[in-house]
Structure formats: structure tokens, C-alpha cells
Amino acid sequence: MSWSVAAIGKAPAVRKVIADQFAKGGKCVEPEESIRLSAASVIDGALAAQTDDTVVNVAASGSMSFKDWNAKEGPSNNLTITVSTMYNFCE
Fold it and tell me: So what's the pLDDT on residue 89?
């Protein structure tokens, strides 16, 4: 299973778009779902700390696999979160 979210823009708009993407995204099996929800919380906190005129680029993704896929044993998880401030943005 895997998931991803992404948006670029002013922090308040990106915060809303990313929250919507997490809300509308399909649920994952555990433990990936707990990781996905934790990522949503971390990203929301990072965006809440920005000023309203700050432009940000947010991308996050995760995936889970198993050493034995058929038996669903030995899970491993990959997670990437990037929240970058975009300077010199022109409108």
C-alpha cells in the first residue's frame, strides 16, 4: 500500500489542500495508517507555524511492504516528508 500528498502555494491554502488530500485518501492497513495520520499531523503543525504570506512546497509519501507479502509478516515502512519555504516567489 502507498499514499502521497503534494501542494505548492501560500501556507494557509496549502494547509487546507493537504488536509483535504489526507481526508479523501484511502485508509491504509496498520501500521501504515498510524504513520500516515502522524505525517498528516506533523505537516499540519509545520504549516500552522508559517505566516499567511509564506509560500511553501509540501510533498509527502509513504509505503509499506512485507518480508513475506503472502503471510503479511515482517512489515517495513518508507516515509518522506518535505516542507520547503519558497523564497523570491512572484505573483
Answer: 81
Nearest Cα neighbor of 63 from 76, 82, 78, 74 is: 78
Number of neighbouring beta carbons within 10 Å of residue 62: 21
| Cell numbers standing for residue 14 | 496549502
* CB count in 10 Å sphere of residue 11: 21
Residue bearing the bigger pLDDT, 57 or 69: 57
Amino acid at the residue 68: D
The position carrying cell 500500500 is 1
C-alpha gyration radius of the chain: 15
Q: Which of 60, 36, 35, 34 is nearest to 47 (CA)?
A: 60
Q: What is the pLDDT of residues 6-42, one digit of tens each?
A: 999 999 999 999 999 999 998 998 889 999 999 999 9
| pLDDT reported for residue 2 | 92
Rounded Cα gap, residues 80 and 91, in angstroms: 29
